[in-house]
Amino acid sequence: MSFSIAVRKSISAAHLLPGYPGRCSKLHGHTWVVEAEFSGPRLNEHGMLMDFDEAKRALEETLKPYDHSNLNEIDPFTRLAPTAENVAKIVFELLESKVKAQGIRLSCVRVWESPSTMASYGESKGA
Asked: Distance between CA atoms of 35 and 51, rounded to whole angstroms?
């Protein structure tokens, strides 16, 4: 058994999927909603797994380089297709390094391109 919390942050960013045989091969944008779920077996002395402000700050710092940008122009998406799946994986890896030292586990990152389309990376339990 473990406790979990989640925080969300939205950013605006453009991308295109090179070589994709559809509309997404053209430059277009989304208001991406990124959700990070953290988990752990114990609460701290304040009865929290992690302070929500701390979780939000870590997610905001991770996403800041991508906000109001063309993802295709930012490493690693200069060589990796900026699909929702790849964005979720990259955000997971970057965010995980920020919280790992605190003994908190990043369980999952979910990336919503629209209200009805989502990709996740990690121990996903669905939407």
From this structure: 16
Say what the pLDDT of residue 125 is. Answer: 57
Which residues, listed in sequence order, are joined to residue 95 by a DSSP beta bridge? Answer: none
Interior angle at CA 56, CA 55 and CA 57, nearest 5: 90
Percent of the chain with pLDDT strictly greater than 70: 96
CA-based nearest residue to 62, from 43, 23, 89, 82? 89
pTM: 0.92
**Domains (ranges, CATH) in the chain?**
32-122 (3.30.479.10)
Q: How many CB atoms lie within 10 A of CB 10?
A: 13
Instruction: Round to whole Å and give the CA distance between 16 and 3.
Output: 37
According to DSSP, the β-strands at 3-15 and 69-70 are: parallel
Q: In what order do the strands lie in the sheet with 117-122?
A: 69-70, 3-15, 28-40, 105-114, 117-122
